[in-house]
Each structure stands twice: as C-alpha cells, then as structure tokens.
Amino acid sequence: METIPLRGTDKIIVPIRLTPQSKFKFECSPGVPCFKLCCSDLFLPLTPYDIIRIRDFLKLTTDEFLLKYTEPFILPKSKLPIVRLKMLDNKDKTCPFLGEEGCTIYEVRPLACRYYPLGFGLFRNRDKGKNEEMYYLVKEGFCQGLDSGKEMTVEEYRRSQGIPELEEPIKDWAEIIMRKESWGPVEVPEKSVELFFMVSSNPDRFRAFVFESKFLEIFEVDEKTLEEIKKDDLKLLQFGFKWLKTVLYGENLVKRKKVSPSVKKVKPF
Length: 269
Fold this sequence. Notes:
Elements: E1 11-13, E2 23-26, E3 45-46, H1 48-58, H2 62-69, E4 70-74, E5 81-85, E6 98-99, E7 102-103, H3 111-115, E8 118-125, E9 130-140, E10 146-153, H4 154-160, H5 164-167, H6 171-182, H7 190-201, H8 203-212, H9 215-218, H10 223-231, H11 233-249
Helix pairs in contact: 7-11, 8-11, 10-11
C-alpha cells in the first residue's frame, strides 16, 4: 500500500508501544530546516516540578509565574485540573519562551518538551499488580528530525534529555492522575479538585495551608519533615503528593492525630 506523505500541519501518533530498549532516530538542532516549528500552538502541560524550576529560573514568585505564563486545564480522562503553558496571542500562537536562537529557558525546559518526539503514558497492570510505563512516537508533517541523526534507544534518549531525574520526584503525582483516569467518568468532589490543584500548582499556597491553617492539629508531621518542607519546595511537593493520596485515596501515608478539631473531612474520590 502506498504511503501518503504527511503535510505540514499533519500529526499522527504511531500506534506501536515502544519499550525502553526500542530504537529510533531523531535529531533537533539549529541546522535542521524545521528548527523551532514545533514550538507553536502547543498543548504543553507543566508538571509541579516544571513550575518550580521555571519559576526559579525566571526569578519570579509562584503567583507571578502562574498569572503571566500559564492557564488551568482540565485533563479529559481524569477530570483533574493541571497547569499548561499559555501560548502568545499572535498568529502562530508561539511559545512565550521561543527566541530567535531557540528556547530561552532550555536549561529548565518542561518535561513534555524533553520527551518530544516521544509520547509517554503510565498505566496500571492489574495482572502484575504494578504501574507500567509505555512510550510511542509522535510524527508531525513539518518535522525533518525524525529518522535522521544517531540511532538510540528510548532509554538512551530519555537520559540524554535529563528526563529520569525530573520524573522521579513526581511519580506519586502521576499515579494520582493515572488512578483517577482508570476509574472512568466518576464525579470528582469540588473540595478534592481544589486540594489537588493547590498542591500541584502552587507550593507557596500549599505551604501556607500547612503552617497557617489547622493542618498540623489534624495530621502528624515529624519535626524533620516540618523543617524540610518549610524551605524546600521539592520536599514540600513530595509531602503534598503523599498527603493527597491519604485524603483522596485513603492511604495512610500522612497519619491523622487521634484527637483533632472538629472539621469537615474531604470526601475521597
């Protein structure tokens, strides 16, 4: 059967599951004719760690960064809110960080950018009783980097892009989303949505919630953890994910105190 070439705006997802040892070719650099064309009109989700890294690189507060560069988005399967990068209001809807010579925040570019042209998914293997990762290729009509350059495995590419060290701190967050997606169209209580979005998008507000509300009267948090989350946003995030799994999924990762003030409990998913 004859293969029809992709046109400029065409995009297809190759329906083949790739493993970490699957091989492919890809090259992206200023010498590639399509350089920068993939940096426009994007759905670009930001992980909680992306937000911290980019915010710090730009020397902004969390609120300043979120207001200027992002917008909320509801994930279609899980119905959970996340943050995505807001494109510029111009003809091409370009990324706000696209400069003449390429990405101006390349050092802290989002996880989604690092993965391209790979797609990534996380699913629950019920037979094996564990989470499994899957990868696939995304082909776009304008991209001339695919099938050129050095051949490498998926895992070699991930390591070359600094992906593993950025994924590890947010695995609990990804699992929260994956577990909700696996349940199908279950209504999410409004309070649960608010808590998930606060922890996922704004460490400053979550820290204030922990230390300025009745949080510490309700939950047991040891002194070492308290000292860490007072000053370390990444530690705060990871604590927040465990707390979310406790209140949303009933896991006993952050223990409740035996005697706590009378408060309305969050309804689990």
